């Protein structure tokens, strides 16, 4: 799978403007085929989102790389991820920063992500099955928070960011989202708007089914 993965990096990422060397190296090293169903492994490096069960998807490689690049991560950073899914975005983040704390509200996906990340040997990750809208107060504050479902920012996330920290989320409703990056300032926030996109909806609560 090394050749399809490198082709993905060249044709889908570099060709579309992803230039952060750390992000490209992470995308080239994480075995995406381990994070999808075996029946879909042949499509793991295609330029598309894929179903992962429970009505959820693994984002297309470009969107994973784009969101990771917009976080401007340093190797000393601690990141909170809202929406673990199958663990692929988690794995990419963990190759760049010091530690990733990731919350998934669907227990079946949380368990699957744990298995996937263990198989891919990512040790600097902590996973939790819980309500992502509440954040993860125990390990706050974070250098960055990334949200992988579409909706609106929770006050808890903003409170759990360090001063100067970044919150990145697909903001909007009804499947019409825009990547929004907020930086926590001494007083208030700065806001930047990027790509239009479509994500599964951000929901509250925990699903143990």
Structure description:
The chain has 209 residues and is of the alpha/beta class. It has a single domain (2-197), classed as Vaccinia Virus protein VP39 (Rossmann fold), CATH 3.40.50. Helix content is 27%, strand content 29%. The protein has six helices and nine strands. The chain has helices spanning 2-13, 21-29, 61-70, 88-94, 107-119, 155-159; strands at residues 50-53, 56-58, 78-82, 99-104, 125-129, 142-147, 161-173, 176-184, 189-197. It has a seven-stranded mixed β-sheet with strand order 5-4-3-6-7-8-9. A two-stranded antiparallel ribbon has the order 1-2. The radius of gyration is 16 Å and the shape is globular. The mean pLDDT is 94.
Features:
two-stranded antiparallel ribbon; Rossmann fold; 6 helices; 7-stranded mixed β-sheet; single chain; about 210 residues; alpha/beta
Shape: globular
The overall pLDDT, averaged over residues, is 94
Going by helix content, strand content and strand pairing, the class is alpha/beta
Low-confidence stretches are none
Total count of helical runs of at least 4 residues: 6
Largest sheet: 7 strands, mixed
- The helix content, as a percent range, equals 25-40%
Annotation, overall tally of beta strands? 9
Approximately how much beta-strand content do the residues carry? 25-35%
Instruction: Tell me the CATH topology.
Output: Rossmann fold
- Per CATH, the class reads Alpha Beta
Strand order of the largest sheet: 5-4-3-6-7-8-9
**Element-by-element helix/strand order:** HHEEHEHEHEEHEEE
CATH superfamily: Vaccinia Virus protein VP39
Count of structural domains: 1
Question: Radius of gyration from the CA trace?
Answer: 16 Å
Q: Please tell me the CATH architecture by its name.
A: 3-Layer(aba) Sandwich
GO cellular component, one term: cytoplasm
Protein name: Protein-L-isoaspartate O-methyltransferase
GO molecular function, one term: protein-L-isoaspartate (D-aspartate) O-methyltransferase activity
Enzyme class: transferase
């Amino acid at each position: 799978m090394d050749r399809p993965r490198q082709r993905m990096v060249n044709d889908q990422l570099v060709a579309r403007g992803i230039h952060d060397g750390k992000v490209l190296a992470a995308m080239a090293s994480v075995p995406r085929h381990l994070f999808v169903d075996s029946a879909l492994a042949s499509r793991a490096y295609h330029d598309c989102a894929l179903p992962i069960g429970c009505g959820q998807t693994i984002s297309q490689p470009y969107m994973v790389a784009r969101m990771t690049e917009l976080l401007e991560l340093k190797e000393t950073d601690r990141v909170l991820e809202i929406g673990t899914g199958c663990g692929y975005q988690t794995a990419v983040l963990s190759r760049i920063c010091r530690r990733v704390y990731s919350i998934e509200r669907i227990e079946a996906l949380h368990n699957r992500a744990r298995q996937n990340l263990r198989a891919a040997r990512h040790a600097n990750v902590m996973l939790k099955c819980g309500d992502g809208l509440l954040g993860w107060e125990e390990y706050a504050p974070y250098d960055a928070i990334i949200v992988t479902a579409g909706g609106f920012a929770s006050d808890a996330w903003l409170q759990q960011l360090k001063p100067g920290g970044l919150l990145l989320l697909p903001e909007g409703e009804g499947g019409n989202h825009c990547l929004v990056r907020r930086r926590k300032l001494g007083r208030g926030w700065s806001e930047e708007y990027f790509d239009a996109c479509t994500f599964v909806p951000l929901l509250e609560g925990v699903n143990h089914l």
